[in-house]
Design brief:
CATH topology of the largest domain: D-Amino Acid Oxidase, Chain A, domain 2
Radius of gyration: 21 Å
CATH superfamily of the largest domain: D-Amino Acid Oxidase, subunit A, domain 2
Largest sheet: 8 strands, mixed
Strand content: 15-25%
Order of helices and strands: HEHEEHHHEHHEEEHEEEEEHEEEEHEEEH
Low-confidence stretches: none
Distance between the termini: 37 Å
CATH class of the largest domain: Alpha Beta
CATH architecture of the largest domain: 2-Layer Sandwich
Shape: globular
Number of domains: 2
Bound molecules: flavin-adenine dinucleotide
Helix content: 25-40%
Mean pLDDT: 96
Number of helices: 11
Strand order of the largest sheet: 5-6-4-14-15-16-13-17
Oligomer: single chain
Length: 375
Amino acid sequence: MLSIWERTVFMAEPHVAVVGAGITGLFTALHHKRRYPGHRVVVLERGPHPIGASVKNAGFACFGSPSEILADVEAEGAEAAVARVQERWLGLRELRTELGDERIGFEATGGHEVFMEDDALYTKVADRFDELNRLLHPVFGHPAYQWLNRSKSDMGLRAGPIARTDLEGPIDGGALMRALLEKAREAGVDVRFGQPVSAVEEDGSGVVLRMSHDLAPVRAARVVIATNGFANELIPGIDVRPARGQVLLTSPVPGLRLKGTFHAHEGYYYFRDHRGCVLLGGGRHLDKAGETTTEDAVTPLIQDALERMLREVIIPGADFTIEHRWSGVMGFRTKGKTALVERVSPRVVVAAGLSGMGVAIGVRVAHKAAGLLVE
Ligand SMILES: Cc1cc2nc3c(=O)[nH]c(=O)nc-3n(C[C@H](O)[C@H](O)[C@H](O)COP(=O)(O)OP(=O)(O)OC[C@H]3O[C@@H](n4cnc5c(N)ncnc54)[C@H](O)[C@@H]3O)c2cc1C
């Protein structure tokens, strides 16, 4: 028996319901609410707080590494590769402007690509390093990358040459999401946790979101599915597959000299400093089939490889233990890296498959999704 107050305030049909309270979902809701302040905008998240990749990542504010960008140039041509870097850069700038560097814990300590001794990849990148900086000049207005002078800046790595950009750095993924959540709520977005959507049904006048655990369904005029690596569960057949990423965090490392964000082995490993500890993730290439999963788990195969990387390359000889391990599920496209943002039926938009770059592009993907809602 609902009162008139419950009916008109808490149970009133939203104009827009967004499924998923990650970076994409919260920004989509925020963008729409700003455009239509009178609209009721609801975000439905199954977790007790955001529990997707947005709070499981390694906290990198980065736009790509030299070897990745050059590989994209080879695969798709310079125009497309530079456009992708530009999109990531614009996304990072917008994210930082929206939420503020201090609130998201951004540290301007630089982004790096580490090459191993006798690394064939190094020769490839070194040969085209000047060309890469020239290609990216329209985006940054100055050379984005330089080679790190190891005699001036010894970070304790047992590795070969290191390329560096001053334009990247680590963030605090939890602080970012808390700031975004607060901002969305301040704008009037109704974010509801503990709301697992089990099915999406559209009829002539709206969309019904069925819920698990006997929770009441939610009816909305329009819906955005922003569940990233899980999007296929609600919209079967779309081209987004899950890709799990595993992470570990060491105990504080005495005398740690590492500062900034780092990619190695074509980006398959990524690491950074975090409050005197090393946070390291990756190794997905060692078991791509096994890591195409939404299961929340870590595996010995990948965790052992991460630990070897710590001992042999990142902090050789250091005394440490592993304090924490976790995994997160990204959404990847089977072809290319462009996120899927499209209307899948007259009232339902999907925004998913951010291909492991959602910190950088989430806010931009959300603009596209919010735009499609009103077209
Ligand atoms: C280990 C790791 C490292 C990463 N490194 C980087 C990086 O260096 N740079 C970068 O830019 N990005 C990185 N990413 C990727 C980035 O974190 C993601 O692209 C981004 O967070 C995706 O945001 P999202 O909002 O689209 O999805 P998510 O944050 O996954 O949000 C989706 C939400 O939907 C919810 N949900 C799912 N199904 C349902 C349902 N049925 N009902 C209700 N709610 C549901 C989930 O609980 C989740 O909270 C990394 C990710 C991981 C895991």
